[in-house]
Amino acid sequence: SRITLASRPILGACQRRAFSATVRQASKVTVLGGAGGIGQPLSLLMKLNPRVTELALYDIKGGPGVAADIGHINTKSVVTGYLPDADGLKQALTGAEIVLIPAGVPRKPGMTRDDLFNTNASIVRDLAKAVADAAPDANILVISNPVNSTVPICAEIFKSKGVYNPRRLFGVTTLDVVRASRFISQYKSTDPADENITVVGGHSGATIVPLLSQSGYGLEGKNLDEFVFRVQFGGDEVVKAKDGAGSATLSMAMAGARFAESLLKAAQGEKGVVEPTFVDSPLYKDQGIDFFASKVELGPNGVEKIHEVGKITPKEQELLDACLKDLKKNIDKGVEFVKSNP
Ligand code: NAD
Ligand code: LMR
């Protein structure tokens, strides 16, 4: 079930020089769930990224088809597609520098992300086992919901296999920052591309905490409440509008591709690359909370430095307190799941 779609033309000396100047190292990116609603546009964006030299798409159905399609795009990366047969998962993962995981079911109207736990927890657990065996040094970017629980699930699996590296496991919360930046621009008539609103906590409802004050904005009263609500429940807007056909896929693909690009930049030596992400974090460990999203500086080894939450308003503190309560439950649920279903 493996198909290789790149042709490797014989390069002239000039072209070879240009090639080695732009591609400073081989970077294989693997997408698990690559044929899904997020997986397809995310894979497309990774194919357009010149830092990627190899792109492997794995899915329980459709991986090779999506790979055949994307593989015709005239960028240099080699694209391969895999199914579960013929050791497809292992082949997709071997040699990966980045593993993006958008595999699993999305919400329908009326569901919370936690309602996805029963289905997605075992999907993510099994994929994490395969990653631990075939790509133990890769950066793992978990998109599958509920992120607050699926990231701890991965950590527990990696620990049980003796390969846990907290610097290389990331819950992707970039979409919350993308939304916050877009929404604030609508209040302030600014260019959303210039906005970078800090969002901390986790990735669901009350655990999503936008810290507007840190961008120097003072929304008040109803405007502030509306803004916070939209950031916390932006995912629900899309679920409702799609009316049973799933949740955010295209904006998520953009957010996932941005995060992967940041990791590749950092791996290739760029300094000062900072992204918000849900990681194994010292910030609230004294309260029994092992994972938390805040701004994280990325480097060649993954997490380089975890930023403190910093100065916040009393209102933001209230939001943070509510976040921590929910977050602890979500994290504990993931850890418990692996204990009882190893
Ligand atoms: P989708 O149903 O369109 O695609 C999921 C894909 O996963 C499908 O192609 C399916 O075949 C595949 N899959 C299922 N089990 C698999 C397995 N064991 N191995 C490999 N592939 C498998 O769903 P979607 O819209 O792409 O959403 C995927 C997940 O991402 C959902 O859990 C959703 O809630 C989550 N999500 C997270 C964020 C975030 O911000 N982190 C944003 C949007 C969606
Ligand atoms: C989102 O924030 O859009 C995703 O987590 C998907 C969802 O279920 O809302």
From TrEMBL:
Domain named Lactate/malate dehydrogenase C-terminal: residues: 173-338
Domain Lactate/malate dehydrogenase N-terminal per the UniProt entry, residue ranges: 28-171
Family to which this protein belongs: Belongs to the LDH/MDH superfamily. MDH type 1 family.
Active-site residues, record numbering mapped to chain: H203
Positions of NAD(+) binding: G33, G34, A35, G36, G37, I38, G39, D59, N120, I143, S144, N145, M252
InterPro entries per UniProt: L-lactate/malate_DH, Lactate/malate_DH_C, Lactate/malate_DH_N, Lactate_DH/Glyco_Ohase_4_C, Malate_DH_AS, Malate_DH_type1, NAD(P)-bd_dom_sf
Positions with a binding annotation for substrate: R107, R113, N145, R179
GO BP term, example: malate metabolic process
Name of this protein: Malate dehydrogenase
Enzyme Commission number, as recorded: 1.1.1.37
Example of a GO cellular component annotation carried by this entry: mitochondrion
Reaction(s) catalysed (UniProt annotation): (S)-malate + NAD(+) = oxaloacetate + NADH + H(+)
Subunit record text: Homodimer.
Domain of life: Eukaryota
Entry keyword annotation includes Oxidoreductase: yes
Molecular-function GO terms, alphabetical: L-malate dehydrogenase (NAD+) activity
Keywords: NAD, Oxidoreductase, Tricarboxylic acid cycle
Record-linked SUPFAM superfamilies: LDH C-terminal domain-like, NAD(P)-binding Rossmann-fold domains
Pfam families: Ldh_1_C, Ldh_1_N
